């Protein structure tokens, strides 16, 4: 709900308080910050980290809840200049007053219950040493408004392998529940096919899982594969040897590798063929043992290419396939091997499908809205054709 549409409550007689400001007159404090303006000082914690206490009161039309913030880092919880607090206020039709070491919520019982769940989730996250982010706050709001519980607990203690010898030492953690399910699937299945829109972390998490397995010794090599299909435009003649010609198609994989490993380490691994990046066409006839294999942009692989890739898998190997069925660049979209894989491979034991959605987008806040807008446009066009 937009801020402009929120219900404004008149000040209580004699309170001297600005409606919705959460600010006592003359206090000079920013709401929720516990700081003097411009001081840059964090409020005293007032105690050790502990459970969050709450008090509540409900009448026939309004409910109020007060949550204790004792031991909670207010700066991490509300963000710089209370940016997350304002983000939450814009999303809910209730009064939120943050002052000192408590936060009070008042409004309709259903709305107050959602806000209580949201703040408890954010407090738990901060107490576990994970600061809030704009993306996470937006995601938690969406999940809780749909009737779910806070996502923080469901995203903890996830690694890329059930084997304790494969630690998640890349510092990579899931940022959505969908990403957690994706990581769990990688740990449990030898073949995982992840389908979802741009920005959901499909490629990055696949590369991170491959690096984690290589570091632990669970596999001896990594092979990254992509179809060399132009995205709606002709690149024309590309100079250089075969590596120079295919590198533009494989750049997203290089980007993910550089986020996880130093450049010098990547160069050594590639020179020794421990890490290989190749176009899909070069996979025919090979058997990949003790390898972690990733096929990215699989929506642009044909059905025969998809079959060829999946049958390269040898002993002690894993394969991750990622793609977005809304961005097929083949002349005939029905030729996509990712579409056929959904139909043909769905019931194979040991092979798992993961479906990510626009809620799992972890890029700029507008990316999620852009994806939804194009989906609605596509649905409208399909309806008109059907009519």
Q: What's the helical proportion of residues?
A: 25-40%
- From N to C, what is the helix and strand string? EEHHEEHHHEHEHHEEHEHEH
CATH architecture of the largest domain: 3-Layer(aba) Sandwich
Number of helices in the DSSP assignment:
11
Beginning-to-end CA distance, first to last residue: 34 Å
How are strands sequenced across the largest beta sheet? 7-6-8-9-5-10
Task: Compute the CA-based radius of gyration.
Answer: 25 Å
Derived from helix and strand composition plus strand pairing, the structural class reads alpha/beta
Number of DSSP strands?
10
List the topology elements.
Blueprint: E1 54-58, E2 63-68, H1 74-78, H2 83-91, E3 95-99, E4 102-107, H3 109-127, H4 134-145, H5 177-188, E5 191-195, H6 202-216, E6 221-226, H7 242-260, H8 263-271, E7 275-279, E8 291-295, H9 303-310, E9 318-323, H10 337-344, E10 351-355, H11 365-386
Parallel strand pairs: 5-9, 5-10, 6-7, 6-8, 8-9
Antiparallel strand pairs: 1-2, 2-4, 3-4
Tell me about this structure.
With 387 residues, the protein is an alpha/beta fold. It has 2 domains: 47-156, Ribosomal Protein S8, Chain: A, domain 1, CATH 3.30.1370; 160-386, Rossmann fold, CATH 3.40.50.300. Helix content is 36%, strand content 14%. The protein has 11 helices and 10 strands. It has helices at residues 74-78, 83-91, 109-127, 134-145, 177-188, 202-216, 242-260, 263-271, 303-310, 337-344, 365-386, and strands at 54-58, 63-68, 95-99, 102-107, 191-195, 221-226, 275-279, 291-295, 318-323, 351-355. The strands form 2 sheets. The chain has a 6-stranded parallel beta sheet with strand order 7-6-8-9-5-10. A 4-stranded antiparallel beta sheet has the order 1-2-4-3, covered by helices on one side. A hairpin with a 4-residue loop joins strand 1 and strand 2 (63-68). The radius of gyration is 25 Å and the shape is elongated.
């Amino acid at each position: 709900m937009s801020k402009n549409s929120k219900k404004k409550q008149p000040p209580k007689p004699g309170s001297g308080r600005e409606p919705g400001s959460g600010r006592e007159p003359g206090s000079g404090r920013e709401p929720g910050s516990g700081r003097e303006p411009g001081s840059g000082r964090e409020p005293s914690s007032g105690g050790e980290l502990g459970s969050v206490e709450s008090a509540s009161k409900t009448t026939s039309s309004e409910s109020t809840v007060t949550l204790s913030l004792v031991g909670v880092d207010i700066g991490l919880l509300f963000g710089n200049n209370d940016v997350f607090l304002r983000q939450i206020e814009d999303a809910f039709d209730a009064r939120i007053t943050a002052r000192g070491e408590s936060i009070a919520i008042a409004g309709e019982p259903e709305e107050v219950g959602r806000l209580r769940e949201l703040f408890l989730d954010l407090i738990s996250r901060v107490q576990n040493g994970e600061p809030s982010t704009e993306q996470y706050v937006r995601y938690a709001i969406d999940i809780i408004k749909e009737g779910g519980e806070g996502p923080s607990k469901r995203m903890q203690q996830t690694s890329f392998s059930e084997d304790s010898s494969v630690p998640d030492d890349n510092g990579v953690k899931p940022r959505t529940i969908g990403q957690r399910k994706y990581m769990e699937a990688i740990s449990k299945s030898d073949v995982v096919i992840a389908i979802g829109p741009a920005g959901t972390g499909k490629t990055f998490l696949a590369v991170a899982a491959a690096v984690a397995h290589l570091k632990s010794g669970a596999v001896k090599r990594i092979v990254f594969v992509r179809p060399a299909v132009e995205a709606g435009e002709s690149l024309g003649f590309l100079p250089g040897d075969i590596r120079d010609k295919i590198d533009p198609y494989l750049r997203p994989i290089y980007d993910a590798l550089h986020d996880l490993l130093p450049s010098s380490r990547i160069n050594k691994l590639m020179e020794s063929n421990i890490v290989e990046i190749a176009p899909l066409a070069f996979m025919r006839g090979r058997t990949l043992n003790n390898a972690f294999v990733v096929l990215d942009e699989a929506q642009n692989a044909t059905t025969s290419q998809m079959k060829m890739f999946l049958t390269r898998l040898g002993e002690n190997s894993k394969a991750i396939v990622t793609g977005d069925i809304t961005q097929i660049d083949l002349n005939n979209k029905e030729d996509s091997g990712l579409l056929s894989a959904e139909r043909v491979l769905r019931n194979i034991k040991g092979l798992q499908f993961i479906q990510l959605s626009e809620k799992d987008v972890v890029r700029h806040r507008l990316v999620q809205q852009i994806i939804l807008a194009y989906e609605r446009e596509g649905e409208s066009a399909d309806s008109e054709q059907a009519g």
